[in-house]
Design brief:
The chain is an alpha/beta fold. It has helices spanning about 5-20, 25-30, 35-45, 65-70, 80-95, 130-140, 155-165, 185-190, 215-225, 225-235, 240-255; strands at about 50-55, 75-80, 100, 115-120, 140-150, 195-210, 265-275. It is globular. The protein binds S-adenosylmethionine (SAM).
Length: about 280
């Protein structure tokens, strides 16, 4: 179903999202906590040398850089220029050659069928209007091309983290859909609809073992992960709420700790690949 989006309100919302993702140090989160996810998506989508690949909501290039290193001709697009700038530096250091372009996933500045493969690694899920974003992924993919999506599930760690943060964070405007819905297979199938075929969806986990304690996890996200930094800013003048969020985030990590001494967690995501109908 297509929803009417007020362009002025949408611009303001996207400005807010852009500022939020520039808070903290998202490139550090990608590099230190989930670096293997981009490569996992590139492999699942079977990216080959010479293919034209678009990484949507690419951030600092977690998927775009491995795709370029695999020999594809890659465009990394994202709402947040600060992340693209860091991505360009990281790519330069790794000898990866690709284009970095500012773009809203809901209004991609590309032609119909321009890419052989369209990827998004825990990225497009953060665009607020899911159907508009899905329509754009399908539009810019060529007939017979591949769409590959990796998204946090609602039941997994990051899905739960958004539930934990919700009572503390600024309420989203009407019409904004929760990001972890993209981690539900039924939702993604509905968004892509009969415009795709050969849909494969698998739930997998990534092991996160760099935190010594649940509090260590909390403090890292409090300092580095844009949505968490934004939630703390929103409640900054209410010490009780700050203490509550401090407690709830540490408890979340404690609940997910598999119990090996330090805080080791398995964060669940949904990996979807699909072929655009010819
Ligand atoms: C969790 S980060 C993922 C970045 C990267 N794909 C990775 O795997 O590290 C989410 C990204 O979505 C981007 N984003 C959020 N809303 C967006 C939108 N409407 N259009 C394009 N990018 C968006 C943010 O700027 C941020 O880079």
């Amino acid at each position: 179903m297509t929803v009417q989006i007020d362009p002025v309100a949408d611009r303001a919302l996207k400005d807010k999202h852009r500022s939020m993702w520039a808070l903290g140090d998202y490139p550090a989160v990608a590099a230190q906590i989930i670096p293997e996810l981009g490569a996992a998506l590139v492999q699942a989508a079977d990216v080959r040398p010479g293919q034209r690949v678009l990484d949507v909501a690419a951030g600092s290039g977690n998927a775009a850089i491995p795709a370029a290193l695999a020999g594809a001709s890659v465009v990394a697009s994202d709402l947040t220029p600060e992340l693209l700038r860091t991505g360009r530096e990281l790519a330069g250091r790794q000898g990866a050659d690709l284009r970095w372009e500012e773009a809203d996933a809901e209004a991609l500045p590309y032609d119909e069928g321009e890419f052989d493969t369209v990827l998004s690694c825990v990225g497009v899920m953060f665009a607020p209007h899911h159907q508009s974003a899905a329509d754009e992924l399908v539009r810019v993919c060529r007939p017979g091309g591949t769409i590959g999506l990796l998204s946090w599930t609602p039941e997994g760690f990051i899905g739960e983290m958004f539930k934990v943060m919700k009572p503390y964070a600024a309420p989203p405007p009407p019409g904004v859909q929760p990001p972890p819905l993209w981690g539900s297979e039924d939702h993604v199938r509905e968004l892509l609809g009969d415009r795709v075929t050969a849909v494969e969806a698998h739930r997998q986990t990534v092991r996160v073992d760099r935190f010594a304690t649940p509090e260590d996890f909390r403090d890292y996200f409090k300092a580095n992960y844009g949505p968490t930094v934004a939630a703390y800013r929103y409640i900054a003048d209410d010490p009780e709420k700050v203490a509550g969020l401090d407690r709830d985030l540490a408890d979340l990590a404690r609940r997910h700790d598999i119990g090996t001494g330090t805080t080791v967690m398995d964060w669940e995501y949904l990996l979807v690949t699909a072929r655009k109908r010819g």
